[in-house]
Write a structure and sequence with these properties.
Number of domains: 3
Strand content: 25-35%
Order of helices and strands: HHHEEHEHEEEHEEEEEHEHEEH
Number of helices: 9
Protein name: LysR family transcriptional regulator
Keywords: DNA-binding, Transcription, Transcription regulation
CATH superfamily of the largest domain: Periplasmic binding protein-like II
Helix content: 40-55%
Pfam families: HTH_1, LysR_substrate
CATH architecture of the largest domain: 3-Layer(aba) Sandwich
Structural class: alpha+beta
GO molecular function, one term: sequence-specific DNA binding
Radius of gyration: 24 Å
Family: Belongs to the LysR transcriptional regulatory family.
Distance between the termini: 54 Å
Number of strands: 14
CATH topology of the largest domain: D-Maltodextrin-Binding Protein, domain 2
Shape: elongated
């Protein structure tokens, strides 16, 4: 039995709650994962896990051992990951997941400078607005807008996106230009909602001017859970949209979107880089986070 492989299998079973999901994350068979944990229990002469047909849980001995194993594996990962930096530059593979519009409009265009700075990093980037499972999918970190509600994640605030309300000229030609945010509540106007996955409902927002605060309530003609599709809906004139300014900048310059309610503002959207508590940050991850902070500052 390789003790490292066995401890890694045990930790993944605990974190995913399943031998099958742990095996998938480690790219081994379920039988191998089961055997590794059984061999570990035999060596330690204790039961580490309660096994039922529905779930896997820790025994008291398993809980104590898991805390030690997580720290040991993290220390080993950190030692291996930090060695390249100690010798000069971070290196190795980094798996990240980011929102689609932020990837296509901000991160990917800036990657040449990233790779020039960190030529030893191999970046695997997933792009989309779904909430990826970091452990099941072996992802090092995610970049997300809005609150990070998963208590198993460590989240670093890396910047804020300035937000504004927009509509397409075709929409305004049909519906007319609203002069005040309160008019959006009327039957003559329609909104496009964004479905945040952690609630799966369009989230309300408010427009502020001095001491005035107007909640934006109205009829949702359409609600979407993808940022690129949401932008496309606004461009198609399907309703009023709330967008980060960076997403709307080109369309505004081409007269395909128009900003509404001059003098009013929406609270900025916080952006976080989040990673699992059991995956301590390494040199590659720290380099990526620092780079994202620089890019977010450039969007102001």
């Amino acid at each position: 039995m390789d003790r490292f492989d066995a401890m890694q299998a045990f930790a993944r079973v605990v974190e995913t709650g399943s031998f099958t999901r742990a095996a998938d994350a480690l790219h081994i068979s379920r039988t191998t994962a089961t055997q590794l944990v059984q061999q570990l229990e035999a060596r330690l002469r204790v039961s580490l896990l309660h096994r039922t047909t529905r779930k896997v849980g820790l025994t008291p001995a398993g809980s104590i051992y898991y805390e030690r194993v997580v720290q040991l594996l993290a220390d080993l990962d950190r030692a291996e990951a930090d060695l390249p930096q100690a010798l000069g530059t971070p290196a190795g593979r980094l798996r990240v997941d980011v929102p689609g519009p932020l990837a296509s409009m901000v991160l990917v265009p800036a990657l040449p400078a990233f790779f020039e700075r960190y030529p030893g990093i191999e970046l695997h980037m997933g792009a989309g607005d779904r909430m990826a499972d970091l452990l099941d999918e072996s992802i090092d970190c995610v970049v997300r807008g809005g609150p990070v509600t998963d208590q198993s994640l460590i989240a670093r605030h890396v910047g804020d996106l300035q937000m504004s309300v927009y509509a397409a000229p075709s929409y305004l030609a049909r519906k007319g230009m609203p002069a005040h945010p309160g008019q959006l509540a009327g039957p003559e106007h329609s909104l496009v909602g964004f479905l945040w996955e952690y609630r799966n409902l369009p989230q309300p927002y408010a427009l502020r001017r001095g001491n005035e605060c107007i909640p934006v309530r109205g009829h949702y003609a359409l609600a979407l859970n993808d940022g690129n599709a949401y932008l496309a809906a606004g461009l198609a004139g399907l309703g009023v949209v709330l967008l980060p300014d960076y997403m709307a900048r080109q369309a505004v310059s081409e007269d395909r979107l128009q900003r509404l309610f001059e003098g009013w503002h929406v609270d900025p959207m916080p952006i976080h880089v989040a990673f699992h508590r059991t995956r301590h940050s390494n040199a590659r991850l720290r380099a990526f986070i620092d780079w994202v902070v620089e890019l977010m500052a450039s969007l102001r």
